[in-house]
Amino acid sequence: MTSHKIGIIVSSSRPTRIGTKVARWVGDQAPNGTDVDIIDLAEVGLPFLAEPELPSSGNYTQASTLAWSERVRAYDALIVTLPEYNAGYPAVVKNAIDTLHAEWSDLPIGIIGYGWGAAAGSARQFGEVLDRVKALRLDGPGLSFGQDLTPEGDMLDAAPADEVRGLYDQIIAAVREKVTA
After folding, report:
1. Using H for helix, E for strand and C for coil, what is the string for 115-126?
2. 66-117 residue pLDDT tens
3. Which residues belong to any copy of the NADPH-dependent FMN reductase-like domain (predicted)?
4. Which of 7, 9, 22, 150 minimizes the number of CB atoms within 10 Å of its CB?
5. In Å, how far are 65, 124, 134, 161 from 23, measured between CA atoms?
């Protein structure tokens, strides 16, 4: 069996964020033989749009951009754990996408929103961004406060673990299809 390397992105940089707990729980649902890493965008520390040329040029000069590119390219796929802030997604994850260009093309990226209303608005908006950069967007379940998790990030019994495992199945199938194409 081939091991697949999947990065799970914590897409909030707020000091009071619960994204790390959500990302760890998502990682715990990974099938055996899958190598998962947590990528905390607060630790990645990308400056906002610091490159002198557009990302589509591929001429990266900033050490942070080069490191981010290398890190993204090391994964077969990503899962973004996405909160909803004021009906949108965090700026730090938009910057992480906008900093690169070619790295996103055909990369399978799952979305798992969390928050009040399961972060449906931010997941929809972020999905549109992934479509624009030609990533292979795979929509996962949304996690609702009070139903699936607490506002402190503790998972409840009703959390859709089976749906998250189903997202992994879709991601792995997409990775395999990409390899054989």
Report:
1. EHHHHHHHHHHH
2. 999 999 999 999 999 999 999 999 999 999 999 999 999 999 999 999 999 9
3. 5-123
4. 150
5. 23, 19, 24, 13
pTM, two decimal places:
0.96
Identify the CA nearest to 69 among candidates 86, 44, 91. 44
Q: Please, are residues 39 and 72 in contact by the beta-carbon 8 Å criterion?
A: no
Q: Answer yes or no: is pLDDT of 2 > 80.
A: no
Q: Which residue has the tokens 């503790």?
A: 154
Q: How far apart are CA 9 and CA 111, in angstroms?
A: 10
pLDDT for the residue numbered 25: 98
What is the C-alpha to C-alpha distance for residues 69 and 105, in angstroms, rounded to an integer?
Answer: 13
Residue ranges covered by each domain of the chain: 4-180
Contacts of 143 (CB under 8 A, 6+ apart): 22, 112, 113, 114, 115, 118, 119, 149, 159, 160
Domain over 4-180 is classified CATH 3.40.50.360: yes
Residue with tokens 């940089």: 13
